[in-house]
Design goal:
- This protein has 209 residues and is of the alpha/beta class.
- Helix 1 (18-28) crosses helix 4 (67-82).
- It has helices spanning 18-28, 36-43, 48-58, 67-82, 89-95, 108-117, 131-134, 142-151, 165-173, 201-208, and strands at residues 5-8, 15-16, 84-85, 100-104, 128-130, 158-162, 177-181, 195-196.
- The strands form two sheets. It has a six-stranded parallel β-sheet with strand order 5-4-1-6-7-8, with helices on both faces.
- It has two domains: 5-16 and 84-208, HAD superfamily/HAD-like (Rossmann fold), CATH 3.40.50.1000; 18-82, Orthogonal Bundle (DNA polymerase, domain 1).
Length: 209
């Protein structure tokens, strides 16, 4: 494989923000129970609307009508103390010589905010793409296809780094090379997908492809 573009997932990959999002949901959704870590493990990589639907199906009436607004407000408050850069992310990005972008299920504004909080904004400039731009969420491949098209790179020459099964499924469906980032030992990568546990491993992996 000749890699001409690395497409990064954001939440749980470049930054550790999923427990922040999970805690915000726990704080505003009465029907959701467990710890932030429990919620993250159960819904990793899923779109918010699908999470809300799942909670509602298990606890009818447990999701407030204005849940999305309440969630955004609470997550914004918690982000100031709960979102942190992933271990080794700056070192990896400093060594990466291949063009890169971010393709996230989250809104562009949320991704930009997290990058700023973690001091990573300069590594991506405007190369940020959101599922909201294409109205399609992982595991749908449309977001990755859009990111590749906007970057002027063929899908077969793209590598995708993801920490969720739905993200890996989207990469495979887009005919891209997936790599599963598993810093927490989740061991959920589909068979045959390369796994890294530290971000700096990506540099060595790229040299072997």
């Amino acid at each position: 494989m000749i890699c001409e573009l690395v497409i990064f997932d954001m939440d749980g990959t470049l930054v550790q923000s999923e427990d922040c999002a999970s805690q915000a949901m726990l704080d505003v959704i009465p029907g959701l129970t467990g710890t932030a870590q429990d919620v993250t493990a159960k819904y990793r990589g899923m779109r918010l609307a699908d999470i809300f639907d799942d909670v509602e199906s298990q606890c009818p009436g447990g999701v407030p009508a204005n849940c999305l607004d309440l969630y955004r407000q609470r997550e914004n408050v918690l982000s100031n103390t709960m979102i942190t850069p992933s271990a080794g992310v700056e070192q990896m990005l400093e060594q990466l010589t291949i063009p890169r972008c971010i393709a996230s299920n989250a809104p562009v504004e949320k991704t930009q905010r997290s990058l700023k909080l973690c001091g990573l904004g300069a590594y991506f400039d405007d190369a940020i793409y959101s599922a909201y731009q294409v109205n399609a969420w992982k595991p749908d491949p449309a977001l990755f296809e859009y990111a590749a098209a906007e970057s002027g790179v063929q899908p077969a020459k793209c590598l995708v780094l993801e920490d969720s099964v739905v993200g890996i499924q989207a990469a495979v469906a887009a005919s891209m090379t997936p790599v599963y980032y598993d810093p927490h030992g989740n061991e959920q990568a589909p068979e045959g997908v390369p796994v890294i546990t530290e971000l700096e491993e990506l540099i060595g992996l790229l040299q072997t492809l």
